[in-house]
Amino acid sequence: MSLPLANMPEICYPICMADDSLVTIPAGSLRAMERKVESFKTLVEISTIISSTLDLEELMSLVMEKAKGVMGAEACSILFYNRDLQKLEFEVAVCQEGDASNILKKKVLLDVGQGIAGWVAEHLEPLIIEDVKKDSRFFQGADKMTGFETRGLIAVPLIGRRGLIGVAEMVNPGRFDFDMEIFQLLCRQFAIAIENSLAHRESLQRERLRQELDIASALQRSFLPEFPTLSLGDLTVSAVNISAAKVGGDIYDFVTPVEGKLGVLIGDVSGKGVSAALYMAKASSDFRYISSRAESPAAVLDGLNTALSRYPRGMFLTAIYLIANSANGEVLISSAGHPPCIWITAEEVRVLSVASGPPLGIVPTGYEATPIALGRGERLILLTDGVFDARDRSGARLGFEQVVEFIRRHRGEEDIVPKLVDLVTDFSDGTERADDLTIVEVRRG
Amino acid sequence: MKIDIQEHKGIKVFALSGEIDMSSSPVLRSELMGLVSRKVPVVFVDFKDVSYIDSSGIATFVEGLKAMMPYGGRLKLLGVPAKIMEIFNFSKLDKVFEIYGNVEDAFKG
Predict the structure, then answer these.
(1) Fewer CB near the terminus (10 Å): N or C of chain A?
(2) Residue A222 — very low, low, confident or very high, per pLDDT cuts 50/70/90?
(3) Homologous superfamily assigned to B2-104
(4) What is the pLDDT of residues A77-97, one digit of tens each?
(5) Residue B92 and residue A339: Cβ atoms within 8 Å?
(6) Domain limits, CATH 3.60.40.10, in chain A
(7) Domain A23-202 falls in which CATH fold?
(8) Which residue ranges of chain B lie beneath pLDDT 70?
(9) Is ipTM beyond 0.95?
(10) Which long-range contacts (CB under 8 A, 24 or more apart) does A54-60 make?
(11) How far is A334 from chain B (nearest CA, A)?
């Protein structure tokens, strides 16, 4: 005769307590307590791992290897939630088949709501599925791609301080009777550790970028004239250049192409940042080379146009190049889509209208040169759009006409350029400088 | 910025609205260069609802134009608002791009 299991007497074990008293505990409860102790041990071990490294890859591999071992899982993975794409992507997949990990990392993207991981990401709740074949939510695509066979899995959302980070999955675990509360606690700790290492990684990247930008900025400054003032006979040229970002896209240069003549370039590269700075560096070195071999400003712009047309991404340069004769004040001016220069004489301030072609580096074309006679005491002001496109707090632009008007009011004064800088600074007070600002003054004494 | 790609009498028309700047021009670039890489012969860009364009936005069209020139493709800008036309005139970009008043003019041009 056999007794029904429920009626069998349960085996009990005596346990010695701290005060030497003896208590008896049923075997089932003891096993449960042992498992709990094991789980706590794992929790402590993983907590130690979590606090031992800020390296994201190392952290994830260590934790997932440990979790995989404890749960007897055949594989485990972490999918990160990409907020820009609003999709889940495999960040780490630990399985015996290395190829499967690579395939998952390269090719598998899941929508939120798609598959088990997508469901967990959508509902922010864990799922335990002993037989995925019976669950319609299971996404078979990953197995088809990797050749791996998923039978059961446990998926838990990783939720950090800023919301969903991703989903952790244990594939084909050896057992399903583990303590979910502890597992979730572990995942919460893990999520915060991931967040911390992501923040650490971002701060390292920012620091690296800052250092790179410092170097780029120093290199870029080396392409500008060493001294912002140059005199040749009666002619004096001076410049002010303020970059909006660490590296800017404005350019100016002074050269003496032939004896007694002063060449002055001002330009503005489309775009900002490192790409604009690289383009500026190329334009600067091309200009130095071409200007030493051509006496006419139009020929220099023609040469620069050809040299810059090979540059990618539709970048271009607006520029004015003028050559002034120190003996007689004759100035030849060529423009490539650059804002006009302003001519200050004893009687008036006028916007100088010269023949202008399109910006450099776009289409093959021929530039022209316009002659003017710069009298003694007269000045030319060349500027970039960072001067008149400056915006105030309400977003209103300063405007080219306002700049001309300001120069009219101050035309008798020596220090027009610093005053112009003050005008822009005061106008855009309280706003972040959006564009580079360059002002070049050519004066005939 | 919003991009609405329409087809008008067999020609692709990019109807743009909002601001074309450093943050939005990469999306525009990807769409435009996608067409150009397939050597689409004519592309219209409708600027009617564009409120602002910066130099990175202009560079996107320059890149498209330069990529179309070798195979004889044509990039036609239409409905350019007065404020943006000022920028094109000021920087002589009106000498670079084909600019038309509206779709009908662009067809005739």
Answers:
(1) N
(2) confident
(3) STAS domain (3.30.750.24)
(4) 888 898 888 899 887 776 655
(5) no
(6) 215-444
(7) Beta-Lactamase (3.30.450)
(8) none
(9) no
(10) A54/A196, A54/A197, A54/A200, A55/A197, A56/A194, A56/A197, A56/A198, A56/A201, A57/A92, A59/A193, A59/A194, A59/A197, A60/A91, A60/A92, A60/A194
(11) 13
